[in-house]
Design goal:
Number of helices: 5
Radius of gyration: 23 Å
Structural class: mainly alpha
Number of domains: 2
Number of strands: 0
Helix content: over 70%
């Protein structure tokens, strides 16, 4: 199987474990939508993994990941949920700041290259 297939299989197994932990019942369509969102979010990594042939993820590795879900406290789960929209907005703000900084550097560069031989305007 490809690395991408292995990761997506692991996602299904961990999704089921997380849903059980939270006592949530998700339809097959909801799980497929979550899997598709995951695949879109991590498409660059999955594209690379899709080019490699790998064995199935070892059982002890899967158990370790499942146990990490089991060990999450309710406060940690809520904290992760609260952090998601905050992280998205923070990322948007950082992008906007970086864009403005790049604009300013470009303007500074153009100003430094301006010909002021005759005094400019």
């Amino acid at each position: 199987m490809t690395g991408k297939e292995a990761v997506l299989r692991a996602f299904d197994r961990l999704f089921d474990r997380a849903a059980a932990k939270l006592s949530l019942a998700c339809t097959a369509e909801e799980q497929q939508e979550a899997k598709q969102n995951f695949a879109e979010r991590f498409s660059a990594i999955l594209d690379v993994a899709g080019q490699m042939m790998v064995p199935e993820i070892p059982g002890d590795v899967m158990r370790s990941m499942e146990e990490s879900i089991d060990r999450l406290s309710p406060a940690q789960v809520v904290g992760y949920l609260a952090a998601i929209p905050l992280a998205h907005k923070t990322q948007e703000m950082v992008r906007a700041i970086a864009y403005r900084a790049a604009e300013q550097r470009l303007l500074d560069h153009f100003i430094s290259q301006a010909d002021d031989t005759y005094g400019g305007n």
